[in-house]
Design a protein that fits this description.
The protein has 10 helices and 15 strands. It has 342 residues and is of the alpha/beta class.
Length: 342
């Protein structure tokens, strides 16, 4: 069994969910190494399967003046250092515009030239939401043999993901998953329809919920001196994340930053590193409640707890005791945006 299939199987069977997390874009090698170390420390402590995420080029910025990252060559070098130093798999995205088609004899070859080097470093290649229907890009990514995570376009019905996932499989790659990242609601807002998390199961693959990008407000923030940038509703990240794990997704996608107020890209929707562990603990409690409840019904093995109104199978009792918390869903999450540089 090849390494991509092995990782894919590990992710599919991860409980209570796997996590794709990291800063939106590579700001510097020092920053990425710091973030990878801190996030891995947290997920290792909690027992979560982590795939570290960051982008080397943000090609679809609202403004041409926005920070895009170090580019593919330098960015992949940095991500490879993270992978080796901390022994964690990597997810990063490719864009159709990542290579200039004019430099190549054909459009398809140009896209292959972008995907192939990314596939040498990344364990998961992510297809951005705006490009989720681009056949040439999907096929080229699939041919790398890596796991492909397709983000659902903000303009797409969940049924579109069935076709996008099938394009990956028809290219000879069974290792595909699809990701909900919100749906346009007017011009400058997104909403998350929890029904999509169920309907996308028709794609017959793992379902990921992007609980940070889904709270963007595209081009919804006016800048001093003119122009616009994307805003966001960071305070609702816990709400959307609780919803996703309660429904029962396979994985969560979450952008995390140690200083969100000064992040060069998508600062308003990056979750503070300072409170990552606190949020994940609660989400694990909700997800484990679901797992225990449904396995109780299936296996009919009960261990009754005096303080609870339901029982749980003996073999899951330790996990349940470790992670059961009362959800904070009835109160606002007190978000601390002060920077972390320790």
């Amino acid at each position: 069994m090849d390494s991509s299939t092995m990782l894919f199987n590990q992710l599919k069977t991860s409980e209570p969910f796997f996590l794709l997390a990291g800063p939106n874009v590579i700001e510097s090698e020092e920053h990425i190494m710091y973030m990878a170390k801190r996030i891995k420390s947290i997920t290792t402590k909690l027992g979560l399967k982590l795939v570290f995420k960051s982008s080397f080029d943000k090609a679809n910025r609202t403004s041409s003046k926005s920070f895009r990252g170090p580019g593919m060559i330098e960015g992949l070098k940095i991500l490879e250092k993270v992978k080796v130093a901390y022994d964690i798999p990597i997810v990063t995205d490719v864009h159709e515009t990542g290579q200039d088609p004019c430099k190549f004899s054909s459009r398809a070859y140009a896209i292959d030239a972008a995907c192939e080097p990314v596939g040498r470093v990344a364990d998961i290649i992510q297809i951005p939401a705006f490009l989720c229907r681009q056949t040439d890009l999907l096929v080229a990514a699939a041919k790398t043999g890596k796991i492909i995570n397709i983000k659902k376009g903000q303009f797409c019905a969940p049924s579109v993901m069935v076709n996008s996932a099938e394009k990956i499989r028809l290219a000879g790659n069974e290792n595909v998953m699809v990701c909900e990242r919100g749906t346009m609601f007017g011009y400058n807002d997104l909403i998350v329809d929890p029904r999509n998390l169920e309907w996308m199961r028709e794609a017959n693959c793992p379902i990921v919920a992007d609980v940070t990008h889904s709270l963007q407000q595209p081009a919804g923030r006016k800048l001093e001196g003119g122009g616009v940038a994307s805003g966001g509703l960071r305070e609702l990240i816990p709400c959307i994340a609780r919803t996703a794990v309660a429904v029962g997704v396979d994985g969560l996608f979450m952008e995390v930053h140690n200083d969100p107020l000064n992040a060069p890209v998508d600062g308003p929707t990056q979750w503070p590193l300072r409170q990552l562990e606190e949020l994940l603990e609660e989400l694990m409690a909700i997800a484990l409640d679901n797992i225990i409840f449904h396995r109780n019904q299936k296996e009919n093995l009960w261990l009754v707890w005096p303080s609870l109104s339901f029982g749980c199978p003996l073999k899951y009792a330790v996990q349940f005791m470790d992670f059961h918390r009362v959800s904070k869903g009835k109160q606002r999450f007190d978000i601390d945006l002060s920077p972390v540089y320790d």
